[in-house]
Structure formats: C-alpha cells, structure tokens
Design goal:
Layout: H1 3-16, E1 26-29, H2 33-39, H3 57-65, H4 69-82, H5 91-124, E2 127-133, E3 140-146, E4 155-159, E5 167-173, E6 179-184, H6 185-188, E7 190-197, H7 200-203, H8 207-210, E8 214-218, E9 230-234, E10 241-243, E11 248-249, E12 254-256, E13 260-267, H9 273-276, H10 287-320, H11 351-365, H12 373-390, E14 405-406, E15 418-423, E16 430-441, E17 444-446, E18 452-453, E19 461-463, E20 469-470, H13 471-478, H14 484-498, E21 503-508, E22 515-520, H15 524-535, E23 538-543, E24 547-552, E25 555-568, E26 573-579, E27 585-591, H16 593-596, H17 606-621, E28 624-634, H18 636-651, H19 656-667, E29 672-683, H20 687-696, E30 700-704, H21 709-718, E31 727-731, H22 736-756, E32 766-771, H23 772-778, H24 782-794, E33 797-801, H25 805-818, E34 822-827, H26 833-838, E35 841-845, H27 852-855, E36 859-861, H28 867-905, H29 917-927, H30 929-938, H31 944-949, H32 955-958, H33 965-990, H34 997-1019, H35 1025-1046, H36 1056-1061, H37 1064-1091, H38 1095-1104, H39 1106-1112, H40 1119-1123
Parallel strand pairs: 15-30, 15-34, 19-22, 30-33, 31-32, 32-33, 34-35, 35-36
Antiparallel strand pairs: 1-8, 2-3, 2-4, 4-13, 5-11, 5-13, 6-7, 6-12, 8-9, 9-10, 14-36, 16-17, 16-29, 18-20, 21-22, 23-24, 24-25, 25-26, 26-27, 27-28, 28-29
Helix pairs in contact: 3-5, 4-5, 4-11, 5-29, 10-11, 10-28, 12-28, 12-30, 13-14, 14-15, 17-21, 18-19, 22-24, 28-30, 28-33, 28-34, 29-35, 30-35, 33-34, 33-37, 34-35, 34-37, 38-39
Keywords: ATP-binding, Magnesium, Membrane, Metal-binding, Nucleotide-binding, Translocase, Transmembrane, Transmembrane helix
Region (Disordered): 1-24
Subcellular location: Membrane
Length: 1124
C-alpha cells in the first residue's frame, strides 16, 4: 500500500469517525421499520438536490441575486426614478436594464433547477424490492416499493448491477460465504471492485426470521464513506457481533459479480453518506473580479463628484435667478392654472429641496457610470472561454478518453496569473500504474534487469498485467526444496499473495486453455505485488470472507484468513493472520520501511536486515516505491489471545478504533524480515518538459507527497524539478527543538548564499526538502511557521515528503496568507481534496485513484503536462481578454456619462437630456455590448506557438500588466477627452443655429457609439468575420435603432434624425469627432509600441515578421528579462 493511498483513506476515518457511545448510537430494528421510527422519526428516503420550489423560486432567487451590491444600486436608481419629483426617464425605461439582467439570470437558474427536479423525481420513483409481511398469511415476500417510500429498518433485496436505495448493512448474499462485490464509481469514482461481507450469524439465518429478532446499534450519520461502526444484537446470541465498513453497502454503489444481496437500511435519504457528501466545492472569486471592486469604488466616487457638482451649481443657479423662477420654463414657481388657490406653488420646494432633488436626479441620469451589463458580459465571456478550453484537442487525454472539464466558470482568468503550483506526486507527476521491478529476499538483491524476461511456458493462469520475472528467482521458486534461499523465496511470494485485500476476477482470454486474472483492488501497489506473485507461480484465484485460494506452482491450496488489520496512516502497515495448509498459523505484515523496521526482530538475522536496508536505499535512489515484508509464526496460545483481544476491541462501544490499533500493535512485533519490494511508478509523458516550461514562466513548483524522502528526491531529479546545481536544504526533525535549530540553520544558509550572489544571474538555486514530521512541529507554532515561510519563499523548489492531507492544505495556506501570489493545486486522489479546495485554483487529474479530486476541483484534465497549454496559452488569453473587457466597459460607459454631464452644464443644471431615454437604456445593451463580448472570447494577442515557445510571456499576467490602476486612470482620461470631442465639436458647430436638441442628441448618440467601437477596433489584434460582424454590425444596429425611435410619433424627437442626416455638416461632424477623439489613443498606442514596448508587443512584432526574423535573429531577448 502506498503512503499516498492509505493516508487519505485512514485520515478521513480518523477525522469523521467518532468513537461510538450509547448516547450516540441509533437503534435499528431489522425488518421492523414501524418500531424503528416509533420513538424518533428518522429521515425518509426521498432526496432533493433542487434549490427551489415553485413557491420559493422568485423570492429566494431574487434574494441571492441581490447579494451583488451593484444590483442593489440599480434597484435604488429604478425606485428613485418612479418618484414624480425625480423622474428623468420613463418609468418603464428605467426599470428595463435591471429587469433584463435579473430575468436572464433567473431563467438560467430556473432551467438548472428544473433539471435537478427532474433528476430527483426519476431517482425517488425508482423501484426497490422491500420485504413485506403478507396480511393474514403470516408469510413474507419482496414487494416493489418506490425508493422514496423506503424507511430505516426495511429489509431490501438488490439484484446484480443494481444500486441499493439507501445505506444498508448486509444480511445475506447469493454467495455461500457471504461475499458481495461492489463498485463505488458513482460514489468516489474508483472503478475497482471492493468486497463486502455478510456476517456468518445472519448468513445462516433465514432473512424472514431476522425480522423483529435483531437490532443494529450504529453510529449517527456522518460523511465518512470509508468508516462505519456498529454492533448487531441477535436474540439467540449473548454477545454483540461487530459491524464495520466491510459490512455496509452505500447508496450510490453498484452490485457486481453477485446475483443478489439482502440488507437492512440503516441510513436513508439525506442521511446517507452519498447525500452528506453532496456538498458543493467552496465558492471562489477571481482576482480580477476582486480588483474590480476597487475600480467600482473609484467610479462611485466620480459619480458622487459629478452629482454633487451638478447639485451645487443648480443651487447657485436657482439663487442667482430667484426672481425669474415664476416664469422659468422648468421652474413654474406659481401655479397660475390653479384658480382655487391663490399664490399656490407648482413643482417647487425651495432651493434646498431642489439641490437634493437634483443630486438624486443626477444619480439617475449618470447611473450607467457603473455598468450593469458588465456582469452579464463577464458570465457570457467565461462561458465562451470555457467552450474553447473544453474543445481544445491538445487538452484531450486519449489514454483515459477524458476531455478538459471546466467545473467553475468564475475563475477562468485566474489561470493567467498563477505564481505557485502545489502538486501531488503519485498519479499526478507519475502514472500511478505500478509495475513490480525488483525485490530483496533474505538479504539477496534481485534487481539486475538483464536477468528479467517475460514469463515463459504453458501457464494455466495469466495475470492481466504482464510482469517480467527474474530467471534466478524463478529457478529458486521451482526448486523450492533444494535450498534455504528457495524456501525463503517461496514464503516471500506467499506473503505477497496473501497479505492484501485484492479481489481476483477470472476472465476468458484469447487462448481457451489460459484463464486471464484481473486483480481488482483499492491500491495500485497491491495490484502490482499480487500480479508479481502470480507471474512467479503463486496465483491468487479466489477470495471469500473466510479463506483465499492460491494456485501454488500448479497446485491449488486453501489458506484460511483468520484475521486482518487493514492499512492505516498511523501504523503505515497492514497485517493478515493466515491458517496455512500445513496447519501452522502465520502472521504476514507489509508496510513502509519507517514503520516495519520498528517491529522487526533484528537479532534473528542482523546481516539480512543490514543488507535489506542498503537495498531499500538503492531502490529509493532510482525512484522506486518500496515496501518491507515480514512474517512470524504464531503459537496456538498467541493466536487465541489475539482472537479474544480482537473480539473485545471490535465489539467495544467506546474507543473501538484505538483498541483495534492497540491489538494490532501487540501482535505485530518480533517479526522476521522476509524481504522488500521495489515498484516503479513511471513518470507521465511530458512531465520533465512541462516543469521546465513552468519554471521558465517564473512559476514555482512545489511537490507534496506521502512517499519517502529518497523516492521523492529521485522522482524530483527524473522530472527535472531538482537539478545538480541546486543547493539542497533538508529539514528532518524529531522534536520541536531540533526543528527550531534546523529552521535557524536554513535561514542562515539562505542569507549567506544571498550575500554571495551579486546579481540574479549568479544566484545559487535552492531546494527545500522537508518531511511531514517536521511540519507537525512547525504548524504548532506561529514563529516556526514564519521561519518556514522565509526559507520556502527564498527557494526555487520545495519538496515535502511524508505529508498528510491536512498538511498539504496547511502548506498552501502558508503561502496564501502571507503573499498575494496566485496559487494552484493539482492532484488526483482523495488525499489531495483539501489542498485543491484551499488553493486559488484547484485542478483534478482524472486518473487511477478515483474522481474525488475531480469532483472537488475547479478544472479537471487527464495529464499533468496539460498544465502548460492551459496556463501559458488559455490562461494568458483569458486574463488578457477579461482584463481588457472590464477596462473597456468602464471606458465605454464613462465616455457616455461625461457627454451627458457636459450637456447638463449648458441647460441650467435641469438634468434634461438631449439623448433619448431609450438610447440611454440601449447604449449598454445593444449599441456597444456585443462587440466587447465577441472580442473577449475570440481575440488573441499572441498565437499559441509563440506563447509556448517563450514561456516568459506568461509573466504579463503575474505582473498584472493588462489590468491595474494605472491603466484605469489612463482609460478614464481617454474617456474624458473623447467625451469632450463628442460634445463640443457638434455643439460649437451648431451653437448659433436653430437645431433642436433631439437632432443634436441623435448626433451625439451616433458619435459616441461609433467612437467607442472604433476604439475597440483599433485594439483588436486578430480579426475574424465574427469580429467584423460584431463591431460594424453594432454601429449599423445603432443607426437603425435611432431611426426607428425617431420614426415613432408618440416619442419625443419625432423625425429629428431625418432632418439632421440630410445635411453635409452632419457627416463632416461625425468624421471630425472620430478623428479628434482618437488622436490621443492612437498617439499613445504608437509611442508605447514603438518606443517603450513590453514583452507582448515585441513578440507580436516577431509574429508579423516571423520568417525573416527567425533567419536573422534566432533568439530574442525580452525587454522585461533584459532589465532584470
């Protein structure tokens, strides 16, 4: 068992499986659901994953949407506009933008929830066979019952390839020994078959007789899918029968290779482990969206300044013209039409009130300074970006037939800003397909690959995974009685074949004379070891609850399984007690060397122990995963003592887990060393090249693994994570004091090497290697955490060995809390889930260890090497596009608002608008929305080839070059200039004419729309027909809308556009506005690209002159790196 594999499973058990006491137990009466639910009504079996009901949808959905403060802002604007004193726009027009955004989101949420409701109905209405007593007859039969009607205590019968309707304890199976095989693919993603057992006490009793005569006391519902703690009480049995994880079948599993199984429901509905684990991953927000709040506050400040200025100036104007207000067009102070009341005031509340009203009216008029359409645009852009990532053939893994998955749409752009990657090793950097390579048996090393060859001869059993065998070992095995080494070799392979939880499946092969055996198990290491034993002639062919059958060199032999202590992360080993055919009882143990050498009796064969330790070191040095195997023959007295202790521990209601570990520790001692194995976990394709590319992109790669230090270091060299020129800082501490000294020494070394390095080019690269034991002491103290951070941040590579799952998350959190660096975690197993959820970006590898990492991730893919195109290409594109789109939206709306502001200054601060209210509403929705969405999805500042060839270009996202406060200030200055051009050029041309405000407003509308679209067109880098259609089509659409609006007689400005368009001055002014408005942007763009270009612009010029440039300048020095 690999440390990675075991630590995740057992760590979750220790966390969620509390010791069972009487007050915590629930009593389930077998076959008597009525009495079971009599005292305390347990959860029904109906499940609901939908969020809304028809009655709660509208209020709850609106409540969730208004968590966005921008929506609250626009709601307040719409409410203000409904007041007569503040009405600027028509009441319907003011509500439409917010209503549109809310409706689109509500429709999307309603569709998603309708799909959940449909899935829930289909699930709840499935049929299960439930044991029911026939009224009057006294007999019992299985009755088809809807899943939603199944209750705790019901006895259910499940057929082959069916799933149980709830979590149920097995009572009987079609196998005479009580074995059932289940597949947990839908629960944890693991496709290998697992064994579950019915207890012999229930197996020998008719199920009908158990009804009402048995009680199960089990722990309360929890989400630990690997743990279960209960006792079974039978009327005729005085003792309690212990039940554990191997006796329960969970909802979501499928029954395989078993005709039927019968069980009693102990957890139903929302209390099943599958439903308790059905929690979504933590909500993450992108870095850009977080920064966007800063700019939104700036825009709010600008809005308040504009509104305050208008309100203050309106007060001054009212005070100056106080005597003229009775006849003023917009301030009829006296209501001369009201003959009933003399001297009555009309629509006038005094200067102070008018200042307040004007401030609020200005907020309504200038509301689009904060663009409501930006949120919808961002969602659509992310959806488009996700589509292209999913469809990218370069992210498709043919070996697992898996495409890239985008599970979180709200952080696409974060892929372009990653500075630190935290990676698992097994299954992430490596294939997690274990291959038995060598062994050390009784102190003799069998690692010479020149002696290895495929199995030869006429074999009756062939393992599905072929294994090369050592000719010398094979000769020893076949001549078992000839030498003592031969006997030890035979016992070694017997240990490999027995000390496991593997399930053998017999398959028909191409040759009818040969049977193919597919070994199914939870650990790839175990599969490799059992396959190796089979290749040497020790073939595991059958497993039941009480015995296994091994074909030993052509002779089938039965071995009774008398006891089993499964692997756990505390002991780091597993053991099995076997009753051998020669009537002896033997204890076989295998585990990590750090655990095993503590229980080996080194006085028995000290030379063998010393030689094996040397062989283990050499195996680890070449990257092999190692396990140590030991044996001890038990006397009858020892076995009986163990059996009694095990029975007491397994039936204890309090402290069962600790008692079982204590029983295992007592029996696992004074072992005789049999030998050790070396298993190769090959690197995935392209891992060294990928790590080198990431390093060139200034991305730090940290590896966090449960493997031993030598193995991790060897893999580090293999994948080019570690290099020969690196200075290694190793921290292996066994106490708090030694840990503190090691950290102080490491800090001193870092400072010393820094002082010796005169510049970055001569800096000595550093690698920190630390083990999980040291991290235990470090995470106990804040001061030690700070020291570790100081050392780690100065190192180019960090390699953490023997780390537990929560330590992985702690290391990620160490960096997140103390830096602003974007973190990414990638892993493939359940032990990586906490790390994946802790990082800013979590990526799951769909590999050999199930899909728990995938289900907890933001993105999922098949190979580690896909990180390179994902980050360097898609991440760069996503960040560049989204950053530009956000800034462009701010610029676009600010330009329009400033045009309105200039007009207010020339109309007595009355906040009337020359631009029609419908054009104001449609500006952000139709006139200018589509082009920015299309460009943000399709535009590419650089080609894929260039981005992959020069990984340094990824630094633009790390340095936030595409979205920062400086760019925001620049685009706001540009918007002010362009608004001045849009407003004052037509104003100065028409100021002495008799043109009406509606005609002037149409000119301003068309001018600002054309100007912002040409601004966008000037920044587009790669044109497609869709981009052309979006940009020029939006201008045409604006023209059509203005014409349609001015063609409606009931709307103000009727026929205005037709009057003004017929003059040559109109077209001349349009051209003048465009030319004058674009001068600063064009000049700044030209100066920046030709005189102070950044890396992106240099690379873009290279692309334009690619062929000639490659001939004359094969290498190009990027400006940023030249400076550094």
């Amino acid at each position: 068992m690999a440390e990675d594999h075991g630590s995740s499973r057992n760590m979750s058990m220790s966390m969620s499986q509390k010791e069972l006491g009487d007050e915590d137990a629930r009593a389930v009466r077998v076959g008597d659901a009525a009495r079971t639910n009599e005292r305390l009504e347990f959860a029904g079996n109906a499940v609901r994953t939908a969020k809304y009901s028809p009655f709660t949808f509208l209020p709850r959905n609106l409540f969730e949407q208004f968590h966005r403060l921008a929506y609250v802002y626009f709601l307040a604007i719409a409410v203000l506009n409904q007041l007569p004193q503040l009405a600027v726009f028509g009441r319907g027009a003011s509500v439409m933008p917010l209503a549109f955004v809310l409706t689109v989101t509500a429709v999307k949420d309603a569709y998603e929830d309708w799909r959940r409701h449909r899935a829930d109905r289909a699930e709840n209405n499935r049929l299960a066979a439930v044991l029911s007593t026939v009224p009057g007859a006294g007999a019992a039969e299985y009755v088809p019952t809807k899943w939603k009607d199944v209750r705790v205590g019901d006895i259910v019968r499940v057929a082959a390839n069916e799933s149980p309707p709830a979590d149920m304890v097995l009572l009987a199976t079609s196998d005479t020994t009580g074995v059932a095989y289940v597949q947990t693919l839908n629960l944890d993603g693991e496709s290998n078959l697992k064994t579950r057992y019915a207890k012999q006490e229930t197996l020998t009793t008719r199920v009908e007789h158990l009804a009402g005569a048995a009680v199960i006391r089990c722990e309360r519902p929890n989400r630990n899918i690997y743990g279960f703690q209960a006792n079974l009480e039978l009327q005729e049995e005085s003792r309690r029968i212990p039940l554990g994880p191997s006796n329960i079948v969970l909802r979501g599993c499928d029954l395989k290779n078993t005709a039927w199984a019968v069980g009693v429901v102990v957890y139903a509905g929302r209390e099943t482990k599958a439903m308790l684990n059905n929690a979504g991953t933590p909500t993450k927000r992108s870095r850009l969206e977080t920064h966007m709040n800063r700019e939104t506050l700036f825009l709010s400040g600008i809005l308040i300044v504009l509104c305050s200025l208008v309100a203050a100036l309106s007060g001054v104007w009212l005070r100056t013209h106080a005597t003229q207000l009775e006849l003023a067009q917009f301030f009829h102070k006296k209501d001369y039409l009201n003959s009933d009341k003399e001297n009555s005031n009309y629509n006038y509340y005094g200067i102070a009130a008018q200042i307040v009203f004007n401030f609020l009216m200005a907020v309504i008029v200038f509301q689009i300074m904060i663009p409501i359409s930006l949120y919808i645009s961002m969602e659509l852009v992310r959806l488009g970006q996700a589509y292209f990532m999913i469809r990218d053939a370069r992210l498709y893994d043919a070996s697992s037939d898996s495409r890239f998955q985008c599970r979180a749409l709200n952080i696409n752009e974060d892929l372009g800003q990653v500075k630190c990657i935290f990676s698992d090793k097994t299954g992430t950097l490596t294939q997690n397909k274990m291959e038995f390579r060598c062994a050390s048996i009784d102190g003799v090393d069998y690692s010479d690959i020149t002696r290895q060859r495929p199995v030869e001869g006429d074999l009756a059993w062939v393992p599905k995974v072929p294994v090369n065998v050592d000719r010398e070992v094979m000769a020893l095995v076949r001549n078992v009685g000839a030498t003592e080494q031969g006997r030890y070799t035979r016992e070694f392979f017997i240990a490999l074949a027995t000390c496991n939880t593997i399930v053998p499946l017999i398959l028909d092969g191409p040759d009818p004379k040969k049977k193919v055996i597919d070994y199914q198990g939870e650990s790839p290491d175990e599969q490799a070891l059992v396959s190796a034993a089979a290749a040497y002639g020790f073939v595991l062919v059958e497993r039941t609850s009480g015995h296994i059958v091994i074909d030993v060199l052509g002779e089938k032999q039965r071995f009774d399984v008398l006891g089993l202590h499964e692997f756990d992360s505390d002991r780091k080993r597993m053991s099995v007690i076997i009753g051998c055919p020669d009537k002896t009882v033997k204890l076989f143990v295998k585990g990590a060397d750090s655990s095993m050498f503590g229980i080996i009796d080194k006085t028995l064969n000290p030379d063998v122990v010393q030689a094996t330790e040397k062989h283990l070191h050499s195996y680890s040095s070449v990257g092999l995963r190692t396990l140590v195997i030991g044996v001890r023959e038990l006397t009858q007295t020892e076995f009986l003592e163990w059996q009694m202790a095990y029975e007491r521990a397994s039936t204890a209601l309090l402290g069962r887990g600790n008692l079982l570990r204590s029983v295992a520790a007592n029996i696992e001692r004074n072992m005789r060393l049999l030998g050790a194995s070396g298993i190769e976990d090959k690197l995935q394709d392209g891992v060294p090249e990928a790590i080198e590319k990431l390093r060139q992109a200034e991305i730090k790669v940290w590896v966090l693994t449960g493997d031993k230090q030598e193995t991790a270091i060897s893999i580090g060299y293999s994948c080019k994570l570690l290099t020969q020129d690196m200075t290694q800082i190793v921290i292996n501490s066994n106490s708090r004091e030694s840990c503190r000294r090691s950290l102080d020494d490491a800090i001193s070394m870092v400072h010393k090497l820094r002082s010796l390095s005169t510049d970055s080019q001569s800096r000595v690269p550093l690698a920190l290697i630390i083990d999980g034991n040291s991290l235990v002491y470090i995470f106990d103290d804040t001061e030690r955490e700070e020291k570790l951070f100081e050392v780690a941040i100065a190192c180019d590579v960090v390699l953490c060995c023997r780390v537990a799952p929560l330590q992985k998350a702690g290391i990620v959190d160490l960096i997140k809390k103390r830096t602003s660096d974007m973190t990414l975690a990638i892993g493939d197993g359940a032990n990586d889930v906490s790390m994946i959820q802790m990082a800013d970006v979590g990526i799951g590898i769909s590999g050999q260890e199930g899909r728990q990492a995938v289900m907890a991730s933001d993105f999922a893919m098949g190979q580690f090497r896909f990180l390179v195109p994902l980050l360097l290409v898609h991440g760069h594109w996503n960040y560049q596009r989204m950053g530009y789109m956000i800034l462009y939206n701010f610029y676009r709306n600010a330009t329009f608002v400033f045009v309105l502001f200039w007009y207010v200054l020339y109309t007595g601060f009355t906040l009337t608008t020359a631009i029609t209210e419908w054009s104001s509403v449609l500006y952000s929705v139709i006139y200018t929305a589509v082009p920015t969405i299309v460009v943000a999805i399709l535009d590419k500042d650089l080609s894929r080839r260039t981005l992959l060839k020069y990984p340094q270009l990824y630094g633009a996202g790390q340095r936030e070059e595409n979205y920062n406060l400086r760019l925001f200030i620049y685009i706001m200055m540009d918007s002010v200039w362009q608004s001045l051009a849009v407003f004052f050029i037509p104003y100065l041309a028409y100021r002495k004419s008799a043109i009406d405000s509606a005609s002037l407003g149409d000119l301003w509308t068309l001018s600002v729309v054309i100007l912002v679209n040409i601004h966008l067109a000037m920044d587009v880098i790669r044109w497609t027909w869709i981009t052309h259609a979006a940009i020029w089509g939006s201008i045409v659409a604006t023209w059509i809308c203005v014409i349609v609006i001015d063609s409606i007689p009931i709307l103000p400005g009727f026929w205005a556009i037709y009057k003004v368009m017929g003059t040559g001055l109109f077209w001349a002014l349009l051209l003048a506005v465009i030319v004058v408005g674009m001068i600063p942007h064009f000049a700044a763009k030209a100066i920046r690209e030709h005189f102070i270009p950044n890396d992106i612009q240099i690379a873009r010029e290279m692309e334009k002159l690619k062929h000639s440039h490659e001939l004359t300048h094969p290498e190009v020095q990027m400006s940023t790196f030249a400076q550094s």
